[in-house]
Amino acid sequence: MSQLTAGEQLRKHLDTFLASDVLGKSFPPYQPTFTFSAEYIDEFHMVLGASAKEPGLVNPKHIFGILIKGSLRRADALKLYEIGYFVNGDILELGSYHGLSTCILSQSNHNSALEKRIYSLDLNAENCRKTMESLHAAKLGRCVESICSEAAAAVERFATNGQRFQFVFIDHSHTNRFAKFVECYQQLSVPAGSASSTISMIGEMKIQTSLTTAFTVR
Ligand SMILES: C[S@@+](CC[C@H](N)C(=O)[O-])C[C@H]1O[C@@H](n2cnc3c(N)ncnc32)[C@H](O)[C@@H]1O
Q1: Domains identified in the chain and CATH numbers
Q2: 98 alpha carbon to ligand 1 midpoint, in Å?
Q3: Residue 218 to residue 197: CA distance in whole angstroms
Q4: Cβ contact 168:189 at 8 Å
Q5: Which of 73, 78, 120, 122 to mutate to test the pocket of ligand 1 (most atoms within 8 A of CB)?
Q6: Which pLDDT tens digit goes with each residue over 147-202?
Q7: Is 70 touching ligand 1 by the criterion CB < 6 Å?
Q8: Strand, coil or helix: what is 52?
């Protein structure tokens, strides 16, 4: 599987961007952002795809062989894996709950030649514990740091420390206040001109195929 090369174009699917009044009500099917030759990136991506029909929820037991509380739509899960697989830099996840999305991101990291660190945070200490429990049960704990922190405070700390991420997965806030985060999160993304840096917004609609690339910083 070829990896993303510097300057490669991301497919943004601008025609699928949703207006705010249909976010959370309309669920476009999965469409790749990166270029790969087959329908799926690899076998795990195929397992994710087979785990649900659009726009259904993927089945953690089917995917990882363990129960993980949480709900991710098929398109969201496929997109998370795809971005986690192809980005060439650290990943920040805001809102891990019991670690379903974290396990998918970590699996993408384990399966990709581009090793990165995943910083996964949640406000709730019990959720952080559950996230680590899910990761260890799925043997996916390597290169993941679970941080118990409020998201905005953590983002400020990362910005102050000059830490950069290529992918920010925002799933802690389901309100439309995310606009205020965009600016802040852009400080965290890699400088323009690098291969890719993607900011994913989640809001009420979870990770939409279209929205994933709507906030790409080039
Ligand atoms: C929708 S759940 C995340 C689901 C998870 N990504 C998954 O795949 O199952 C949102 C999580 O964000 C956390 N959260 C809510 N507000 C937060 C905040 N301000 N800072 C950090 N975490 C927050 C909640 O504790 C909750 O676990």
Answers
A1: 14-214 (3.40.50.150)
A2: 9
A3: 7
A4: yes
A5: 122
A6: 999 988 888 888 788 888 888 888 887 655 555 566 566 666 655 433 344 455 43
A7: yes
A8: coil
